[in-house]
Design goal:
This protein is an alpha/beta fold. It folds into three domains: 160 residues, 3-Layer(aba) Sandwich (Rossmann fold); 173 residues, Nitrogenase molybdenum iron protein domain (Rossmann fold, 3-Layer(aba) Sandwich), CATH 3.40.50.1980; 32 residues, no CATH class. 44% of the residues lie in helices and 16% in strands. The protein has a six-stranded parallel beta sheet with strand order 1-11-10-9-12-13, with helices on both faces. A five-stranded parallel beta sheet has the order 6-5-4-7-8, with helices on both faces. Helix 2 packs across helix 7 and helix 3 crosses helix 6. The chain starts with 17 loop residues before the first strand and ends with a helix.
């Protein structure tokens, strides 16, 4: 195990040590892949519950008070006016507006190409089964703006919602200190065709979209990332009777990189830091069969950290991150599949050839020229992805996330005669005689 360099300015390790995976026992391997603990506790859950109740019972006044408490500003009107939209778009640099437009076009092209289709087939003579797709009627999108505003999230959520055909799209985002919404977020919302934007953040935004408070309508499903408080609020409202659905539990951002000896250490370090700067609880993992590459990346992390404005955040994240040495790349893929990362970068000489080995990941980036940041902003895929190992059983947000599938059965008398006896036999085997009778009474009708 290599010694960890010390950042002389803070006295804290600047980059994680290189761990030899083969030298670790099962307990140590589990510990090496353990994600940082989420900021969650019984006390936090109770406080979130109290905040949700405060908004539900107190309405606009409660939302305004909580906004002043958590966002540092009490807005007079939550809804963004047409004039504020115009001023926001006019205030942005043309280059930023062009980048938003270009990213939106790619995101729309990618998501439109992967939309589900309705279908119908005859499963027996006289028995037609169908699947219809219907948009979720009203969806609520949450776009954070804590340590940094996220116009890209507005695009990632708003474009699939529009493609799905949702008739009512509501977007909530925290106000800035001047009481206005972030201009780039508003420009992105407008590009998605969203004109119902509300300046409210945190738990109070989730409560408002779940219960219908402050002019914000109650929504059928909520989408979007957030901190631990927002995540807990989404969990609680989704569990309430009649509550909205949610896209997925959203944990801290994470990336796992598999790199070989030919990888560019500066590129790999930059990718690790691009996720580490998200938050102190983010996690980055590098797995390689090359000790020199691991050492070079560690040196690059120290060098590149010194130039980052968010270096303090990234440094905290690196304290919970890992550099792992393995004897073979096959082992690296075993580790990755067990970890199921939100983002997986394959910094390999023939990255596509390894793609069949990927079994669980939110989004994959192939080769040296595909930084994860492209997926965050403008390649066309979605950056709202499963975290904390949820990629083992679910994928990221897409058009289908904003739709429901409804099945249909169209049965003629001849169709009932063809398959009805199977239903009667199965119902009898399960002891559900009313089920069997519902079929029999029709089969025996004159």
């Amino acid at each position: 195990m290599s010694a960890r360099p010390i950042d002389t300015a803070s006295g804290a390790p600047a980059a994680p040590a290189v761990l030899d995976w083969n030298a670790l026992d099962a307990t140590a391997r589990t510990a090496a892949l353990r994600r940082p603990a989420l900021e969650s506790s019984d006390a936090q859950a109770r406080e979130v519950q109290a905040l949700l109740r405060q908004v539900r019972d107190g309405g606009e006044d409660a939302m305004r008070a909580l906004g002043e408490r958590f966002d540092g500003v009490a807005v007079d009107a939550f809804a963004v006016s047409a004039g504020e939209f115009e001023r926001a778009c006019a205030s942005l640099e043309p280059a930023l507006l062009a980048a938003i437009d270009a990213a939106a076009a790619r995101i729309e092209a990618f998501h439109a190409a992967g939309m589900q289709s309705a279908y119908a087939l005859d499963t027996a003579p006289g028995v037609r089964c169908e699947r219809m797709l219907r948009p979720i009627a009203r969806v609520g999108l949450y776009v954070p703006a804590g340590s940094a505003p996220l116009p890209s999230t507005a695009l990632m959520l708003g474009i699939p919602a529009r493609l799905a055909g949702c008739r009512d799209i509501v977007l909530c985002t925290p106000p800035r200190g001047d009481g206005n919404a972030d201009p780039a977020v508003l420009a992105a919302a407008r590009r998605c065709g969203i004109d119902r934007v509300f300046k409210v953040g945190g738990v109070q935004a989730i409560a408002a979209m779940a219960y219908g408070v402050g002019g914000i309508p109650a929504c059928d499903k909520l989408f979007g990332p957030g901190n631990a408080w927002v995540t807990e609020a989404k969990r609680q409202v989704a569990m309430a009777p009649g509550g909205p659905g949610i896209d997925m539990p959203a944990g801290p951002s994470e990336v796992l990189v598999i790199a070989d000896a030919g990888a560019n250490a500066a590129f790999v370090a930059a990718d690790l830091l691009s996720q580490a700067e998200h938050g102190a609880d983010s996690q980055v993992v590098l797995v390689s069969d090359s000790q020199p590459l691991l050492e070079a990346v560690r040196d690059e992390l120290d060098a590149q950290l010194r130039a980052l404005p968010r270096a303090a955040i990234a440094r905290h994240a690196l304290a919970g991150s890992r550099l792992l040495r393995v004897d073979a790349l096959d082992t690296a893929f075993d580790i990755s599949n067990a970890y199921a990362p939100e983002h997986l970068i394959l910094a390999l000489r023939d990255a596509r050839a390894w793609l069949p080995r990927v079994e669980a990941a939110g989004s994959v980036f192939l080769g040296d020229w595909a930084p994860e940041a492209l997926g965050d902003y403008c390649s066309g895929t979605n950056h709202v992805l499963p975290t904390a190992g949820a990629a083992r059983f679910t994928g990221g947000v897409g058009v289908a996330s904003f739709q429901v599938a409804i099945t249909v059965q169209d049965v003629s008398r001849e169709g009932l005669a063809a398959i009805g006896n199977d239903a009667r036999v199965l119902a009898a085997a399960e002891g559900l005689h009313a089920h069997a009778h519902a079929v029999a009474v029709r089969m025996e009708a004159p």
